[in-house]
Amino acid sequence: xxxxxxxxxxxxxxxxxxxxxxxxxxxxxxxxxxxxxxxxxxxxxxxxxxxxxxxxxxxxxxxxxxxxxxxxxxxxxxxxxxxxxxxxxxxxxxxxxxxxxxxxxxxxxxxxxxxxxxxxxxxxxxxxxxxxxxxxxxxxxxxxxxxxxxxxxxxxxxxxxxxxxxxxxxxxxxxxxxxxxxxxxxxxxxxxxxxxxxxxxxxxxxxxxxxxxxxxxxxxxxxxxxxxxxxxxxxxxxxxxxxxxxxxxxxxxxxx
Length: 256
Hints:
Elements: H1 12-21, E1 24-30, E2 39-45, E3 47-50, E4 61-68, H2 72-81, E5 93-98, E6 103-105, H3 113-116, E7 123-138, H4 144-165, H5 185-193, E8 195-210, H6 217-228, H7 233-255
Antiparallel strand pairs: 1-2, 1-5, 3-4, 4-8, 5-7, 6-7, 7-8
Helix pairs in contact: 6-7
């Protein structure tokens, strides 16, 4: 990931918060296999367990997920993991998280530079975080370790999504959250046999909030107004993000 200084987020804690709020990540692997593509990627929702926000810590946290056993990427992963007595893939994996709100930025938003020089081009505003690390694979359906891992993973992911994503809490008129126990035990056992578990140790993490911080104050104001005028939820959210990042940039300059 290209981390231009003006856009880069230096706080690991802030990146952890971003991942928790945007748990759907794209798992990318590069595995040599006679049967499956070398590069593969899958969208997977993850549960984050933080360990340290110290950039020098060897492992900063763990991401827990699962994927369908019939997924060709899972088959390549199982093939590689079975060759390791530790069930840890020799190859690093990468997980990319992207914020749910992103949008094209038209040069017409630039109220200062465009009229003055015309030296502006379109771009795209977005937020993203990227994780690299080692993956431990739980794929032996007869293993009690795998069963326990998947039971915990499915429970924790359901809690995260039912409460954090859906807002289900059972109070103040909100619906009760769905629980794994709502489904028959036998059905859950069958589902567990059709997935594998993946636990990734976070060895490095980087991310950015690309929200027009590189532009001058007047242009940033034009971008904020332009997004507001879209009259959409995405536009309103991004207008707020650009404003927040602009204020952070200005505050940082004042401290210099």
